[in-house]
Design goal:
single chain; alpha+beta; six-stranded mixed sheet
């Protein structure tokens, strides 16, 4: 039986060989259900930072919320990466960045990692110049302590460590160099003027810039797939979820001590980074929607020191996003 099968197989291959060589035998083509989606790349695309159709009702609602608090300076920007729907409220106005500037700093650091000019475990030395007060724990370590890049980048987002941020800024060439990088990235309002924590609010950015940073990463425009995954992983460690995440949850008619966990039951995940210096608050993040689409959103408010209306306004604007993009639970 074995000899017989061998003879038959060998004969068949010999007869088919000329046809295979000439390409006469081809694999069957499978037609996609949607002709615009190529086989092998089915499903949702990575999208792009390209505003196309304004959600005018949402933009108008944001304006109403801001007008009700006339002494607060508010701005906001939302873009659904998959289809270009967007909403805006003074999106290009430069405002105090607070810790929200750490998101573009993270992008700049991962670009260096992509370029091979910075190593994931490269030690960054703590010096008096970069020690920053406020949030974080790295400032309490002895001078000369070396922190690996991945730890500084993670703590910069996870607990908003100001010294970690300054370590990265210094490693990336200092304030002038990183500002040139931000300009090259197309972030005109994003400027580092002082080391963090910058309680006077001299460092600036805009809601459009913050949303654009996250969009450029998620759509693969500025980072390799590996560095993009690192960016998302680090952003996912952020502890503060009381602005955009809580606002989205409230827009869905719920409240919870852990908004991130509660949002998962709706099929929503948020990767965000906040900013808070008392006179200014900000939050920007990537929002994974229940239908698989992704949106970027950013909100900034400047007002009286520690005025609760500032954070309430950000949550209210985020709530309107949930009502528009998700609807009733």
């Amino acid at each position: 039986m074995g000899i017989g099968l061998g003879v038959i197989t060998g004969t068949a291959l010999k007869l088919l060989a000329p046809h295979l060589a000439q390409g006469a035998i081809q694999t069957p083509k499978v037609e996609a259900a949607n002709p615009s989606v190529a086989i092998g790349n089915q499903g949702l695309s990575s999208g792009s930072f390209e505003p196309r159709t304004e959600l005018k009702a949402l933009s108008a609602r944001w304006a109403q919320l801001a007008q009700a608090q006339g002494d607060l300076q508010a701005s906001g920007f939302l873009l659904v990466l998959d289809d270009g729907r967007y909403a805006q409220l003074q999106p290009d106005r430069p405002q105090p960045a607070a810790s929200s500037i750490k998101t573009p700093v993270l992008l700049a650091g991962l670009q260096e990692l992509d370029a091979g000019t910075l190593r994931w475990n490269e030690g960054l030395p703590l010096t008096k110049e970069v020690v920053g007060g406020g949030a974080g724990w790295m400032a309490s370590r002895p001078m000369g302590t070396r922190f690996p890049f991945f730890e500084a980048a993670t703590e910069m987002i996870r607990v908003s460590d100001n010294s970690a941020t300054n370590l990265l800024i210094k490693r990336l060439g200092g304030k002038t160099a990183i500002n040139s990088r931000f300009t090259a990235l197309g972030l005109p309002a994003t400027v580092v003027r002082n080391w963090l924590p910058d309680l006077q609010g001299t460092n600036t950015t805009s809601s459009r810039d913050l949303a654009k940073v996250i969009a450029m990463v998620d759509t693969g425009q500025k980072l390799s797939p590996r560095a993009r995954d690192l960016f998302r992983e680090i952003m996912g460690t952020s502890r503060t979820n009381t602005l955009i995440p809580l606002g989205l949850l409230q827009g869905l008619g719920q409240d919870a001590p852990d908004p991130d966990a509660a949002l998962k039951s709706f099929g929503i995940t948020v990767y965000n980074k906040t900013g808070d210096i008392g006179i200014a608050y900000a939050d920007a993040g990537l929002i994974q929607l229940p239908n698989g689409q992704r949106a970027v959103a950013a909100f900034m408010v400047k007002g009286p020191f520690n005025d609760p209306r500032s954070t309430d306004l950000i949550r209210a604007m985020a709530a309107e996003v949930a009502k528009t993009l998700v609807g009733k639970p």
